[in-house]
Amino acid sequence: MAVIGGQLKPDLPAKFAGDSNMPGQINVEELEKSLLKPRTIFNQLLIVFVTVLTLTALVPLFSVLWMLLWKGGHNLSLAVFTQLPPSPMEEGGGFGNAILGTFVIVSIASMISIPIGVLTACFLSQSETGSGLASTVRFAAKVLTGFPSILAGVFAYGALVLTMGGYSAIAGGVALSILMLPTIVLTSEEAIRMVPKKMKEAAIGMGATDTQLMWMVLLPTAIPGIMTGVMLALARAAGETAPLLFTALFSNYWLGSSGHIDLRQPTASLAVLIYNFAGAPFDNQTSMAWTAALILVVMVLISNLIGQLFSRRQIN
Fold first, then answer.
1. Which DSSP state fits 281?
2. Is residue 105 part of a domain?
3. What is d(CA 123, CA 218) in angstroms, rounded to the nearest whole number?
């Protein structure tokens, strides 16, 4: 032990003493030698390897974005958002009805899936460990996560399209709600379970009932995590095509062209417009498909960014 500043300090090894023998001074020569050790070199090689793999994985993403900007960006104009799809060999036009239809169908799906999903998450988060019903519901939600989207469209076709006698925005919303539901349930349950235990105990200690605990403590605290799941579910639903081919189909007209909005009629959507126009033999419609794809990617990207913001808010 050495006396430094009136206090006892442990003696440092001689190799860290340096030329001046000052405690705490690092020997630069020993540090340079440690950088040449096999373990250090192997660690650096792994860092370089992982960095290269990460950049390689990003190549397809940026390639798609670049192609969309290159082929679809030059058609961007106000007419794209305000006019109807062009006919074959017709110049100009837009897909404002498809943008509106996408918002309407996704809104219907949200009104169905969000309340059911959040309430289901409340039940799962408060259920006792080993509950058979809770385990069954949780397992079903996980199975639905990998549920083929076209099967959701077939189900909605049989349950609603045939029953209502035609394609409609309502049937499309129901089909998309099936795909949104598992994401909302699982992420909301996890967000509620992440609420600090001290907050629950404090609320119970103040005499709060289970209902008051859920609505006044758990849900307000878990809102950022719940919103993250909702935005991710919206991003998935907005890009689905197969379910809408069986349910909402497509329309070249505005949703409210008859003077009032009728949700029981075929409705345009961006995903189906891209599907129809991408394989068309006419250059104007193919170009419009690229522009619609760019708009759809931007919408999905915005939804994901909003979800990330809510996620960071929950972490902080």
1. S
2. yes
3. 12
- Compute the mean pLDDT over every residue in the chain, rounded to the nearest whole number: 86
CATH of the domain at 133: 1.10.3720.10
Question: What are the beta bridge partners of residue 8?
Answer: 3
What's the token pair of residue 281?
């033999």
From CA 311, how far away is CA 313, in angstroms rounded? 5
The closest alpha carbon to 288, from 298, 280, 277, belongs to 277
pLDDT given for residue 16 in this prediction? 45
> For 220-279, what is each residue's pLDDT tens digit?
999 988 998 999 999 999 989 999 999 999 998 888 766 678 899 999 999 999 999 998
In sequence order, what E strands does 115-189 have? none
Alpha carbons 14 and 25: distance in angstroms, whole number: 10
Is 12 a residue whose pLDDT tops 50?
Answer: no
| Domain span at 147 | 97-262+301-315
- Give φ, ψ of 4 to 5 degrees: -130, 120
